[in-house]
Amino acid sequence: MSNFTTAFRLYWKFGLPFEKNITKKSVRCNSQEFRVTSAISHLNKVRRLTYLPQWSTPTRRPYLPIDCFTGEREREQMRVNSFPLTKRRSIPVRRPLGPSTTGDGLVKSPLPHGPNHLSRRIAFLGPALLLLCFFAMFTIFSISSRKIAVDDSSRTLYTIEIINEFPHDPQAFTQGLLYAENDTLFESTGLNGQVEALHKMNSSYFGEGLTLLGDRLIQVTWLKKTGFIYNRYNLSNIEEFSHQMQDGWGLATDGKILFGSDGTSTLYQLDPQTLEVKGKVIVKYDGYEVHNLNELEYINGEVWANIWQSDCIARISYKDGNVLGWVLLPNLRKGLLTAGYHGIDVLNGIAWDDERKRLFVTGKLWPKLYEIRIYPVEKNFSKSMIRQFCMRDPVNFAKP
């Protein structure tokens, strides 16, 4: 098996996959193997891929592009940008005016001008635990949507409409995102804006999931069963704690209990005072475990989870672990790649404004943060296709 260091694209149409440019003998896409029988002809699927779309008669169905990326770094596993659900109008790119640097080395974003622009403050908490606020110009962009006709097996799929776009630090390796009152967002890494407070973490810790409970910011760390509690107003370190999850990936709360993820298929419930595990469920869809649960958010009685290395958000019942639905966001990352942002990483980061019912998402190293609205697609994909698009093989970074 040859290792690929460049991106390639597979197109599926009429049940026959083909690729014009691949000349290797074999390729792998999202841990699935393809054999090339001709450099410009068809690809034969191995048996594990028999659940991919098979159309017996030629139709005018659109191509389903699957972008595969390989990398040598451990957190740059192969990624799949599944399929376009929406067809967007060409939207003019809003470039920030550019941050200015103060004499003390802090970075400030320019203030918007004009009475019609609302100011927003975004704060973040990351490996350096920087608290930021930035003022961004809000422009509402509407998009027209076209759904792909598929079988109507179940109505659990949702696509999105972009409401607002905000500048986001392309160097921010986003691990957690949460909304607080007064239009403040806390993020587990940096955003464009002004540094208001600084609390440096020990360099041996890698900041991960973050949630807000009362006046306490609670954070877990990667590869260490250690977390930290901070005062939300001045970022002073209140407490260090240990937890019983296998790792620290995501945190969320309903105001009474904490929900945690460790990169497996387990969704934990933690006591907010002692941080002890009070319960846990295995997250499943169609009888299959949903692995790689990452950043979490509690929304209207459900726990929403990014699935690491996918463009999907799972809507989970925390009572039994069943996936109630999927939010599909492939066009966000695809749009950034098309715009020339080739250094971006995976979708990660969900924040919910419960008072105004606003939903925000972003990704690791993304230059934008989006306010979005979701709505059901007209016809759903088969469950086997959803598993292919949204579910990934388990990955375990934990040290033995």
UniProtKB/TrEMBL annotation:
InterPro entries: QCT. Keywords: Membrane, Transmembrane, Transmembrane helix. The chain crosses the membrane at residues 122-143. It holds the Pfam family Glu_cyclase_2. One of its GO terms (molecular function) is glutaminyl-peptide cyclotransferase activity. The keyword Manganese does not apply. This is Glutaminyl-peptide cyclotransferase. It comes from Trapa incisa. The lineage of its organism: Eukaryota, Viridiplantae, Streptophyta, Embryophyta, Tracheophyta.
